[in-house]
Amino acid sequence: MRDGVTGTSRVLESRTCSDFVFDIVAGGVVMLLLRIKIAGIAEIPVPHMEPPQIFHYALGQEIRAHYDFLRDGEKPYGRDGTYAGDRLATFLLYLNDDYDGGDLEFPKASFRYRGRTGDGIFFGSQRGGKPDPMSLHAALPIRRGEKFILSQWIHDRPFAA
Description:
The chain is mostly beta strands. The protein has one helix and 13 strands. The longest helix has 19 residues, at about 25-40.
């Protein structure tokens, strides 16, 4: 995960699940069509999307409460250190539901969501161009089985980081 203070990537103790990031070639036609569908739902073009990821949560794994926005508006980041965009929204697609636990929780909004296979949930990370504190969310620990979810982060401009 990217550290918002230093701008460097590091392992976070708050995240115990594993992930797989698709590049354009590995994603193939199915992933392209899925991203086009998400773009239609979000009304934001595909070039604004990060490469999609599949998150895998095994027994006991979780992501503790966090925000999906990446920056404070002051420090650019990315490969060459000049990308000034940020995550505007997140789209999650549930790939299975044969597990217990693992709810998506928004603690500041007092809201929990338990997706079923094929469900999607779309939520913003910003409001009025600033990080939205109500977007704090967590994936609660898995109590039985394994959870698989596709995450698609959507930026406020074409993604180039």
